[in-house]
Amino acid sequence: MKALITGITGFAGSHLAEYLLARGDVEIYGTYRARSRMDHIAHIADRIRLVECELQDREAVEKMIAQIKPEHIYHLAAQSFVPASWSFPAETLMNNIVSQLNIFEAVRMADIPCKIQVACSSEEYGLVYPDELPVQETNPLRPQSPYAVSKIAQDFLGYQYFQSYGLSIVRTRTFNHTGPRRGERFVTSNFAKQIAQIELGLQPPHVYVGNLQARRDFTDVRDVVKAYWLALERGVPGSVYNISSGSTRTIQEVLDTLLSFTSAPVQILVDPKRLRPSDVEVLLGDATAFCEQTGWKPEIPFHQTMRDLLQYWRDTLQAQARTKGGG
Ligand SMILES: Nc1nc2c(ncn2[C@@H]2O[C@H](COP(=O)(O)OP(=O)(O)O[C@H]3O[C@H](CO)[C@@H](O)[C@H](O)[C@@H]3O)[C@@H](O)[C@H]2O)c(=O)[nH]1
User: Fold this and answer.
1) Which domains does the chain show, CATH number per domain?
2) How many angstroms is it from 141 CA to the middle of ligand 1?
3) Smallest Cα–Cα separation from 19: which of 65, 67, 69, 76?
4) What is the pLDDT of residues 255-310, one digit of tens each?
5) What spacing in Å lies between the alpha carbon of 82 and ligand 1's midpoint?
6) Are 208 and 155 in contact (CB under 8 A)?
């Protein structure tokens, strides 16, 4: 079976590639761009096929899909950092919407039997009222950022291409996910990296934070990528599914959990630059529909995820120090 992962060099993409490799029955293709960093997939590079492709280039995408003829497409490539979408709203919308349109059009033109998973987001729900929790797929979408609007467009294009052309598309609205290799701008990874830097004496004992009152529903990325596989194996085309753990934590609790793994004394400082024009206050997902349809359930406890993430940063920073020191 041939699977294509867009954004294979990224956080979720690299974990999905590892998961599919471990299955043993999947031939894995992945797209990257000239500027993509390869460190997340260096350890598996000899077992996957990498294809350079700018997804905003329609002709390049058509050629790539026609050549590979994938049976599964996992569309994970995106501008996924919410604050960047305020700094670069046009780029976020263009990148996220046009890339996906090109993939849909290329599959349609190639006329191949191919299932497509679209990585949508819980950010689409945006403003959620207390009596709407936990959020179901039927909840109104009240976006709070340009990123959320881009994901709603991706989501609705998935619905429309299923309705109009019968493309076999499954949409996954994934709530926050984290784990080793999480990009350092995202809150869990950012705090973990700061703590690891403090432990190694690479920064003063100050942890900079933004809004600690926000609540999020976190799942381990290694559970999330299993869900993506199951979405295409057992999900109903045309459907949209929440992928979430069903429990919520404040960002303060995230910080406290990470701090419980270190003996380094730290001071917490609010950095006003980390506060957003509008922040989603609470996200808590109801994944019952997905669990019942596919048999999926998250298995890795939050504490384990946080422990692994902090260890990832300790190992990464130590390896960087060794490289710099020439040892
Ligand atoms: N990034 C960051 N966020 C902080 C910080 N301090 C507090 N926060 C708060 O921590 C929460 C989570 O922020 P992020 O980790 O940046 O994630 P996100 O905005 O919730 O978006 C993530 O989840 C979405 C799914 O709900 C994904 O779609 C999106 O791509 C991303 O992974 C937000 O409420 C943010 O204001 C900080 O120093 N840095």
Assistant:
1) 2-178+220-243 (3.40.50.720), 187-215+247-283+300-325 (3.90.25.10)
2) 18
3) 76
4) 999 999 999 999 999 999 999 999 999 999 999 999 999 999 999 999 999 999 99
5) 7
6) no
